[in-house]
Specification:
Blueprint lengths: L1 E5 L5 H11 L1 H7 L1 E5 L1 H9 L4 E6 L1 H4 L3 H5 L10 E5 L1 H7 L8 E6 L16 E6 L4 H13 L4 E5 L8 H7 L8 E4 L1 H11 L2 E5 L5 E2 L9 E6 L7 H6 L2 E4 L11 H18 L3
Parallel strand pairs: 1-4, 3-4, 6-7, 6-11, 7-8, 9-11, 9-12, 10-12
Antiparallel strand pairs: 2-5, 3-5
Helix pairs in contact: 1-2, 7-8, 7-11
Length: 273
């Protein structure tokens, strides 16, 4: 275990940490990403990820960092533990309400569709070309809360280790199996697995609570500005919509995902599943 105190924002370790936070290319090239917060880091460790370094502010997090995170020091003897000064921590923290702990964590090989751990009558959430990592993170939280089997991100606009995605998901990116692929690949896989495709769209659709979500199904949502591509609408087994009584005709995509996922959960519980 390597221990060191860092008091300068110009320290090479701090510069590298900031680069990993800001640049997807750096994360990909080095096979590392950054997570901030106790829950997020714990969830990553529980999912089998390995931290390379922990940076902490003793004024915020205290001194028992390994105890707080549930880390066995003997398990990772090469992991660095860096106590940082307040100015340094202010530089590396990237969210409000911070808990005083930031970690560099080794990435994993991404899951592929054929490796998704799907159960009988699975509940899958699918997004197409959703741009904001915060929305993907919020969808992951709802997916975790509803016990969804997987999230499939089609035509992704950000990497899965984007700090804003990790932050918005509160670590659900480590608890919900997640795959990125093209829409064509996702449609082919869902059809092969016999998973019904329910597309959220305004046109030619029924209200979502009238659709059967008790059997294996995939709820598919597009971006707020463009909606779903034609290939999804044509591949769908059912078109569903959330009724709107106001003057606007759309919800935030993460809100729509939450509404539809919790309806699926309600139906499945009512059916004893």
């Amino acid at each position: 275990m390597k221990n060191e105190r860092i008091t300068s924002t110009s320290n090479p370790k701090i510069r590298e940490l900031l680069s990993l936070t800001d640049k997807a290319r750096e994360r990909k090239e080095k096979g590392l990403f950054v997570a901030e917060g106790i829950r997020e880091i714990r969830h990553s460790i529980e999912a089998g990820y390995v931290p390379r370094a922990i940076f902490y502010s003793p004024e915020i997090a205290g001194n028992d960092i390994l105890g707080v995170l549930g880390i066995d020091a003997a398990a990772w003897p090469d992991m660095g533990i860096f106590e940082v000064s307040q100015p340094v921590y202010s530089k590396i923290a990237y969210r409000d309400g911070t808990e005083g702990i930031v970690a560099e964590i080794y990435g994993k090989e991404p899951l592929a569709l054929d490796n998704l751990p799907i159960c009988e009558n699975p509940l899958v959430i699918v997004t197409e070309a959703v741009e904001k990592p915060g929305n993907i993170g919020a969808i992951l939280r709802s997916a975790d809360a509803c016990g969804a089997d997987a999230l499939i991100i089609c035509n992704p606009k950000c990497d899965l280790y984007n700090p804003n995605l990790i932050r918005a998901s509160i670590g659900a990116i480590f608890t919900v199996p997640t795959v990125t692929c093209t829409s064509q690949e996702a449609i082919g896989w869902l059809k092969y697995k016999g998973i019904r495709i329910l597309t959220a769209q305004l046109q030619d659709s029924e209200e979502y609570y009238d659709a059967d979500m008790k059997t294996g199904c995939a709820i598919v949502l597009g971006s707020e500005d463009k909606g779903l591509g034609r290939e999804w609408r044509e591949a769908a087994d059912c078109h569903i919509r959330i009724p709107m009584s106001g003057k606007l005709d759309s919800l935030n995509v993460s809100v729509s995902a939450a509404v539809l996922l919790f309806e699926a959960l309600r139906q499945r519980r009512s059916a004893g599943r």
